[in-house]
Amino acid sequence: MHVSNKTCDSKTNRSIGCTVDECKYHCGDEQYCTLQQIRVGKCEPCANTCECTECASFEKKN
Ligand code: SF4
Which of 5, 6, 22, 43 has a CA positioned 20 to 30 A from the CA of residue 12? Predict the structure, then answer.
């Protein structure tokens, strides 16, 4: 059952769109992050494609 996150509206950062709903910072109801800012990092020493980048602020939802 989907439980609506009532704190979502006040925390949603519409400047950071995100579809990673496995992350504990994901808004839940909408495709946005709830952090004020995120850090983007590289998965490889030298990024050549989009797949080489990642959200370094990701934390797995409990
Ligand atoms: S921290 Fe990163 S992965 Fe997590 S919801 Fe925010 S943008 Fe998405």
Answer: 43
Q: How many Å lie between the centroid of ligand 1 and the Cα of residue 23?
A: 6
Dihedral angle sign, alpha carbons of residues 13, 17, 57, 60 = positive
Determine which residue's CA is closest to atom 5 belonging to ligand 1.
Answer: 26
**Tokens standing for residue 5:** 């996150």
- One-letter amino acid for residue 38 of the chain: I
pLDDT digits (tens, 9 = 90+) for 18-37: 999 999 999 998 999 999 99
pTM, two decimal places:
0.82
The answer to whether residue 44 is domain-embedded is: yes
Count of domains forming the chain = 1
pLDDT at 5 over 60: no
